[in-house]
Amino acid sequence: MASKIQASDRISYKAMTRASLSSYMWKYKTLYFITLPAIAYFIIFKYIPLFGSVIAFQNYNIFQGISGSKWVGLAHFKRMFEHYDFLNILNNTLLIGLYDLVFAFPAPIILALLLNELRIVFYKRILQTIVYMPHFLSWVIVSGIAIGILSPSTGIVNQFISWLGHEPVYFLGEESYIRLVLIGSGIWRDSGYGTIIYLAALAGINPDLYEAAEVDGASRWRQTLSITLPSLMPTIMIMFLLHIGKFLDFGFERVYVFLNPLNINNGEILDTYIYKAGLQSQQYSYTTAIGLFKSVVGLLLIVIGNVLSKKTTGESLY
User: Fold this and answer.
1) Which range is the signal sequence, renumbered to this chain (predicted)?
2) Could you give the CA distance from residue 71 to residue 54 in angstroms, rounded to a whole number?
3) Which 8-state DSSP code applies to residue 291?
4) 291: phi then psi, degrees, rounded to nearest 5
């Protein structure tokens, strides 16, 4: 008898939960309706194409389709690792991703802290607009600006080097400088826009904490170390976890516009190689295997980073 009562209680509780969820969704139906285009976008362009990853295990023929193409198992993955230049391309991707993580990731944080110290709102807004603007330039324009600035004959950087008594440097013609150019141009373009999230997090810090610190005689530097950075840490960790998920996905367009035969040895990454092998040479299955490899590595990095973050800071994505 007691078990029947408990079962009926569970059924009634589930019915109440469904009713409350339905009423809640109906109450905010406008917001759910607004999200439908975004949901449709992710379903159509992100989730449905995932089923196409099966061609990584086939010799895909565009005329025969997925169902008619021959299965080859892991042959394309084996070919990927046996390619004469693959290890060099993977090494370039890992190094550029590491440099981006070390130098580009902290840049928006530092810039947000500096902007937050401005007390005159008018100047603060002007400066924010100036540092945001490069983000809306395409990489083609950014590369044109960089090429002009770094030109060995007319570039302002080489003019300064010549003024110091040294020979001009052809930055885009020497493979040792291409990674520096890629990371530097990325910092200039995206750091300002990346400060938006950190400035929003800074605005949410309780000002009473700073007032109490001032009463105790803490300097601005001590307040930053003891209040600002610990308060920003949850946001920093979430952004860090999202960043490492794209560790091997540096971006095709931001690299391809800077490549030339003189720097390609240190500048070629997986994204540009996929473009050349996949679109130009029509090796769809082979490049899908490379893309799947990138996705698996990114997933593993997110899982490992999430576990470590949860154990060390208590913050995690899930």
Assistant:
1) none
2) 9
3) H
4) -65, -40
Measure the CA angle with vertex 38, ends 36 and 41; round to 5°. Answer: 110
Of 227, 219, 228, 221, whose CA–CA distance to 199 is shortest?
228
Architecture of the domain defined by 74-312 = Orthogonal Bundle (1.10)
**What phi, psi does 71 have (nearest 5°)?**
-80, 135
Q: What is the pLDDT of residues 198-251, one digit of tens each?
A: 998 998 888 888 888 888 888 888 888 889 998 898 889 889 988 888 888 888
Q: At what angle do helices 178-203 and 86-99 cross, to 10 degrees?
A: 40
How many Cβ atoms are within 10 Å of 162's Cβ, its own excluded? 13
The pair of structure tokens assigned to 301 is: 């990095």
pLDDT tens, position by position, 129-157: 899 999 999 999 999 999 999 988 888 99
* Domain spans in the chain, listed from the N-terminal domain onward: 1-73, 74-312
Among residues 24, 71, 38, the alpha carbon closest in space to that of 285 is found at 71
**What is the value of pTM for the model shown?**
0.83
How far, CA to CA in Å, does 248 sit from each of 158, 184, 241? 32, 18, 14
Cα–Cα dist 298/55, whole Å: 20
C-alpha–C-alpha distance, residues 140 and 62, integer Å? 31
